[in-house]
Write a structure and sequence with these properties.
Elements lengths: L2 E4 L4 E4 L2 H20 L5 H5 L2 H11 L5 H12 L6 H30 L6 E7 L6 H19 L2 E8 L6 E8 L9 E8 L4 E8 H6 L1 E7 L5 H15 L4 E2 L16 E5 L5 E4 L4 E4 L2 E5 L2 H27 L1
Length: 318
C-alpha cells in the first residue's frame, strides 16, 4: 500500500486501493502526454515571423506586386489574430524590402562610378565540371585571387537563365592590361535566345575551368546600361551583390568653399560640388579631381583601413 505525505498534518497517510488506482492512472496519463509532445528543434524555435516572411517573399519574388502582396497576406494570416494586423505586418516588411533594395542600388552605383570598368563578363558552368555549389565557391575564389594578385576589380550578381534555370554570374570588370589569364578568342555560334548567329569573345582559361565565359568590351558610355542590367537582378533574384576588395563607395578629400555650389539633401548635410573641384589632403594640394586621383585616394583609404584592422587584431591577440 502506498502512502502520501501531507504538509498540513506533517504525517504519512496511507492511500486506499481506489486512490492508488486513480494515482497510477494519473501518472500514466502524464507520462503519455509528455511523451507525445514533440519538443521543437533549435531551428524551429528560432524561426520568427520575419524569417517566415522572407522565405515566402523569396518564393514569390517573380510575381506581380499586387499579386505578391495578396499572397503574402494570405500566407501570413495564420500567424496573426486579425486581418488588419496581417496586412500591417506585410506592408511594413514590403517597405523594408523596398528600402533595402534602394540602398543596395545606391551602393552599387556609387561603387561602380568610382571605377574604370572595361569589360562586361558572363560566366556559365558546365554540369560535367561543377555543381552549383562548387561553381560558386571556385569562381569566387578565382576572382578573389585575380583581384589580390593582378589588380582586378569587379561587381557582379548571380542569375539563372529563364529557360534552363542554369546559374550564371554577370559582372562588370576592370582588368588591367597584361593581366588576362589564358587567351581571348572569337567563337561563332547560334544564339537560341536571339534566334540568330553571333560572334562572342571567350577565354580559354575560364572555359577550361568552368565551362563558358563571355567577354564584351565596356565603353564608359555604356556603363550605365550594364549597371541597369545588374540592378534588374537585385529585385529579380534577391541575390547579394559580389564586390571585389577595393571597390570603394566614397573617396575622402578636403574641398575649398569656392568649389561648393550649394547644400543639398535632408537637413542640408550634403555639398553639391562643381565638376572640376580641387582635392586637398590636410593642406596638401592634390589637384583637380580626375580618374587617376580618385584611384589613388581610394587606394589610400583601403591601405589605411587594412592598417587599422591589423592594429585592432594585434591588440585583441596581445
Amino acid at each position: 500500500m502506498k502512502s502520501v505525505f501531507f504538509e498540513k498534518d506533517n504525517a504519512l497517510i496511507p492511500l486506499t486501493e481506489k486512490q492508488e488506482r486513480e494515482f497510477a492512472a494519473f501518472n500514466e496519463y502524464v507520462n503519455i502526454y509528455f511523451a507525445s509532445v514533440k519538443k521543437p528543434s533549435v531551428a524551429e524555435q528560432s524561426v520568427t515571423r520575419r524569417d517566415r516572411f522572407d522565405e515566402l517573399y523569396r518564393d514569390m519574388i517573380n510575381l506581380p506586386k499586387k499579386e505578391r502582396r495578396a499572397n503574402l497576406v494570405s500566407a501570413m494570416r495564420q500567424d496573426f489574430e486579425t486581418q488588419a494586423l496581417t496586412e500591417r505586418f506585410v506592408g511594413e516588411n514590403l517597405e523594408r524590402k523596398r528600402h533595402n533594395l534602394i540602398c543596395r542600388r545606391q551602393r552599387l552605383a556609387r561603387k561602380a562610378y568610382l571605377q574604370d570598368f572595361n569589360f562586361f563578363v558572363t560566366f556559365t558552368f558546365d554540369g560535367e565540371k561543377h555543381t552549383e555549389e562548387s561553381f560558386r565557391r571556385k569562381l569566387r575564389n578565382t576572382l578573389s585571387l585575380l583581384s589580390s594578385r593582378k589588380g582586378w576589380k569587379y561587381i557582379g550578381v548571380w542569375e539563372r537563365s529563364p529557360e534552363k534555370k542554369r546559374l550564371h554570374f554577370h559582372g562588370v570588370f576592370y582588368i588591367p592590361e597584361g593581366t588576362m589569364p589564358g587567351k581571348l578568342f572569337e567563337k561563332n555560334d547560334y544564339s537560341f535566345r536571339a534566334h540568330k548567329r553571333q560572334v562572342t569573345v571567350q577565354n580559354t582559361y575560364f572555359n577550361k575551368r568552368f565551362g563558358r565565359s563571355d567577354f564584351a568590351a565596356l565603353p564608359e558610355t555604356e556603363l550605365r546600361f550594364a549597371l541597369a542590367y545588374l540592378m534588374k537582378y537585385l529585385e529579380k533574384t534577391n541575390e547579394k551583390i559580389v564586390y571585389s576588395r577595393g571597390t570603394e563607395q566614397y573617396f575622402v578629400s578636403d574641398v575649398m568653399e569656392e568649389d561648393v555650389v550649394c547644400r543639398i539633401g535632408v537637413g542640408k548635410r550634403k555639398l553639391l560640388l562643381y565638376d572640376d573641384f580641387v582635392c586637398w589632403d590636410e593642406g596638401e594640394y592634390l589637384g583637380k579631381v580626375n580618374r587617376d586621383l580618385i584611384r589613388r585616394l581610394c587606394a589610400k583609404q583601403l591601405l589605411n583601413r587594412l592598417k587599422t584592422n591589423k592594429v585592432a587584431s594585434y591588440r585583441q591577440n596581445a
